[in-house]
Amino acid sequence: MALAFLMPNLIGFLLFTCFPVLLSLWMAFTNWSLRPIQRTEFVGLRNFTDLLGVRTVEGAPAGVGLAGFVVPRSVVLTLYLLAVAVLLAAVVGLFWANVKLWRGSRSGGVIVALLGVVMAVLAVALPAASPDDQGPAMLVRFWFGPGQGVFFSGLVLLLAGLIGMNREDGTWRPGLGMAPAGLLAAAMATLWWLHDPMWTAYTPRDERFWHYFYNTLFLMLSIPVAIAGSLGLALLLNQQLPLGAWRSRRTAMVRVTGVTLCLLLAVLTFGIGLWQGWPNVGLLAALVWAIASLGIAFNIVTFRTIFYLPTFTAGVAVFILWKELYNTEHGPINALIVAAVDGLAYLAGQVGVDMGGLDGGPQWLAHTAWARPAMVIMGVWIAIGGTTMLLYLAALANMPKELLDAAAVDGAGPWQRFRHITWPQLAPTTFFVSVIAIIGGFQGGFEQARVMTEGGPAGSTTTLSYYIFQMLFTDLNLGYAAAVSWVLFVMIFIATAINWTFGKGVEVEA
Amino acid sequence: MGRLLLRFTVLCLLGLLVAAPFVWMVGASFKTHAEVERGGAHIVPERLTLENYPKLLGQIPVRGDEYLDLDFGRWYVNSFFIALATTLLTVLTSAMAAYAFSRLRWKGRDTVFLLYLATMMVPGVVTMIPNFQIMVWFGFVNTYHGLIIPAAFSAFGTFLLRQFMLSIPPSLDEAARIDGASHWRIFWDVVMPLARPGVIALAIITFLAAYQSFFWPLIMLNDSQYFPLSVGLLELDTGYGVQAELVMAAATLTVIPLIVIFVIFQKFLVRGLQLGGVKG
User: Fold this and answer.
1) What pTM did the predictor assign?
2) Which of B18, B158, B274 is facing A307, going by the closest CB pair?
3) Which range has the worst mean pLDDT, A224-228, A354-358, B136-140, B213-217?
4) Contact: B37, A307; criterion CB under 8 Å
5) Residue A509 — pLDDT band, cuts 50, 70, 90?
6) Which chain A residues are Cβ-neighbours of B101 within 8 angstroms?
7) Chain B residues with beta carbon closer than 8 angstroms to that of A305
8) Distances in whole angstroms, Cα of residue B200 to Cα of each of A82, A387, B205
9) End-to-end CA gap in chain A
């Protein structure tokens, strides 16, 4: 009997989920190809070594200069790999120290935050200090080189350090909790020191993979911003607006009047705008009135709906829309930027300062330094009012009110109440949504890369999932594509394992 | 009163900010070609034209007398057909499997369920590659069923509905069993109506995923008559000499059904998302 109910799903599940997983695992160890002429052979770990390994640069000397000595290059390689291993161990250790609250974990946070500051400052200062053309523009020179990524990594470390420092249940007293942070700093410094000798002697076998891996990580910068924004929106939406019930005749009358009034004002503003020759200002003002009237009618459901729309509609249509928005010549974003800068320059001119003009806005999707940030900004817009916000709303609704009330009675201000009561209670949700977002981030970026940039310019928006697509369709190399997907799986598996080990799980009831 | 007004104003302005790209999109779809080419951030067209939508649904001009060999109306129908068929099959098979996992006792039930849970962790790209090879073997490439059938068996859906069914008190179907109802009767007349919020949530999530799916149809199809909207939009966008105002009109037409569906069913969707963790 059970079989009759289970069978339809089970057959499909075995055929299209279980079997493919096994087949994919097999493919990753073969040279499986869609080219009919090629025979499929077992190649062992070759796909993986081609993907992750390094090879020596042709004609590179056997000895490399390091700290004044000439050492065999294999020594540099060993040291470098060791530093990478220490770095990974330190990251896991940081997690562990903060979850298990080792003694000194808050001081460890200070070290991480300082490391982040040092990285961000060096990222800006080193390119600025290079001798050619000094001027006010030298401070933004980092943006157009590898300094951009280092700068943002520094900011992420600073954020992580601040979160660690603010764990109120942790301790400042020095202890084992500082070790992971110290190791992290040491590993970073070693990697920087070894960078030149290492990469003159060796080169990655698949440079594209590492480039695209970097892109994938870079696009994840939208995650912390979107989570913070989601939390802000959830706090704004947490309580119903005290507008009174529809059932009560008195408040219902007030609300009907409010809705009508706002709609009338919407029509009126748009009309005045058209009549005065300011149709766009009129339209925007009218839209605000229209949203207000919906807000009076349906309370916070209106705003929750609007905020969730980007997530719900995210797809090819929305990416095509953003491609138009980012268009360098006739896109509205650059039109707004140019107008704003012109306005500023005009105001500065009024007080006698010559700001100089701006020849067009950023190149956005057409420039290697702008394409990734453009994707990050779009990612924030898509995710800010999404599922994260809904989960925060559910968590806020489940939170007992007594603590907040007691704190208010004791004279705690809104910020103190958030910082010491709400935020700690939201910690499991924050942890959960971060891990889910990271898992999604590793797999993401395919659609926007395909639709908006075709992975360009110069591969700067190609993520790992788009790389897999390229492997499938330009190289027809299924074996190698499967190997990439399994490397991706290992990263996701680690994120999931961290979630299961450290996350207490979020209990959410609607 | 002042706090309420402040919070309300902030919410309205944020709402406008989030919605602004959509507003610009709709505005651009009513602009003339020359106006779009000239650019600018304005929303209200200087010269309103209603021609873009009929043009899109009819034949799409390139330059002069040439027309693009594209059929937007057909893609629309394709998208709805594929998404509805996938949703129907997914909900049916998931609900039946969920019934077997939550209401029936059989040997190996927990082991099989664990297998379901384990595969939910495997990212889509891993199964995508071998599935494509399987489709080639089956000869499913360039067909509707090649898009529908692989998507119709969801481990996540089984999991979600099982959670819902477990929350329904078993005394109800025990009572039905004592009255002599078969498992089919209990499934259709007792459990399914009670699990309706979960079923609707799963249906919306599946419909959305199928309507928006892009990677899979992109690799499976090269005959434009089978295209769903997602792949069709890309074709339209990269098509030689196609104008941005037509693409914006197409994007508007693609997004509108989603907005309507969301506004109608959001209560169920929000509950489903908050209950079943996150997916979608």
Assistant:
1) 0.90
2) B18
3) A354-358
4) no
5) very low
6) 6
7) 262-263, 266
8) 52, 17, 9
9) 34
